[in-house]
Amino acid sequence: MKTPPSSSASDIFDVLVVGGGPTGLACAIEVQRRGMRVVVVEKGCVVNSLYHYPTNMIFFTTPELLEIGNIPMTAVRDKPTRTEALKYYRRVTNHYRLNVRQYERVDAIKGSDGDFRVETTDRLDCPGLHRTRKVIIATGYYDLPVRMNVPGEDLDKVLHYFKDPHPFYDCDVAVIGGRNSAAITALACYRAGARVTLIHRGQQLSSKIKYWIRPDIENRLKRGEIQGYLETTVEEITKAAIRIRTPEGEKTLPNDFVLAMTGYQPDIEFLERTGIVFDPESQRPRTNSETFESDRPGVYLAGVIVAGMNTNEIFIENGRFHGVHIAAAIAAQPR
Predict the structure, then answer these.
(1) 88 and 59 in a common domain
(2) Which residues on adjacent β-strands are paired with residue 38?
(3) Contact indicator for 48, 23 with CB cutoff of 8 Å
(4) How do beta strands 104-112 and 115-122 pair?
(5) Is 6 contained in some domain?
(6) Same domain membership, residue 114 and residue 60
(7) Looking at the domain assignment, is residue 7 inside a domain?
(8) What is the pLDDT of residues 156-211, one digit of tens each?
(9) Could you tell me which residues are beta bridge partners of residue 111?
(10) Per residue in 66-86, pLDDT tens?
């Protein structure tokens, strides 16, 4: 897919979609189907979040629940792999000839309903300007990890994303977290020959760990093959160690790498700067329940960001349908 040349300020799109993940692509398809001109602006590559998933990741869902644009998705087994998903979404993008501007970051959304001016910066640090009648924000949450806010978190050895266990062979690795991603990461590193310590602040591992993973991680912890510390917090990370606070007091452990599987969150600062208002109690952005239009007229939200900080409520499986409602609402308005 070739990135189209930068549009001039005189070009006006009907809709600009911020975010080129599955939900953003689904929104663009629905808009395009209704005869409107649409552009997708993505700060990374197409389905950037999926690209950053672990290399050998297998989805927990079936292929048909990841489909967009009525294009069938095939997989060798009952659950698709990351590689199969990336191939599928590339194929869908090509099939619909979507105008996707990769490696272009949205800096500001100015103007008002019917005449927005979206300011961007591309990979060469060149500024861009797109004019559009409507904006759909489908930025997800995977690009912004939840930080531990402890001394040493910015060291190069601290990673908030896990791709492959091979680099951690014969190393002392601390995995932080007690949910599914932490369990998978700890098991993968253990089987790649790392000396793994799992650190979790809760009294027990999350009940949301997948049923086929739970007995595996529990058995490794029980046998001491993976060292476990529950009700434990990280106090400090240094180049050669990690200091933790356990129920028995402080301990300092030798450490080569820290894999902080502490979760991810929407870019609240960007959304607030864009004019999105959040409910103080639920932490959800205020949107029309039928059209997904935000409190800022002409700006719509799609995908997981509709749930605010409750990121476990919306996934590809249900967020992919938001585009149908949004596109129908936009199409019903006079141009």
Answers:
(1) yes
(2) 15
(3) no
(4) antiparallel
(5) no
(6) yes
(7) no
(8) 999 999 999 999 999 999 999 999 999 999 999 999 999 999 999 999 999 989 88
(9) 116
(10) 999 999 999 999 999 999 999
Domain span including residue 219: 158-260
Looking at mean pLDDT, say which of 32-41, 273-282, 283-292 comes out highest. 32-41
Helix or strand run (H / E) with residue 239:
none
Report in angstroms the alpha-carbon separations of 25 from 9, 15, 43, 123, 296: 24, 12, 14, 21, 22
Q: How far is CA 68 from CA 29, 57, 275, in A?
A: 8, 20, 29
In this structure, what DSSP letter does residue 221 have?
H
Q: Which two tokens stand for residue 38?
A: 């649409």
Going by the DSSP 8-state scheme, the letter that residue 167 receives in this structure is G
pLDDT at 8 over 80: no
CA distance 86 to 78: 17
Enter the tokens of residue 244. Answer: 């933790």
**Number of other residues whose CB lies within 10 A of the CB of residue 297:** 11
Q: Are residues 130 and 187 in the same domain?
A: no
Give CA 180 to chain center in angstroms.
15
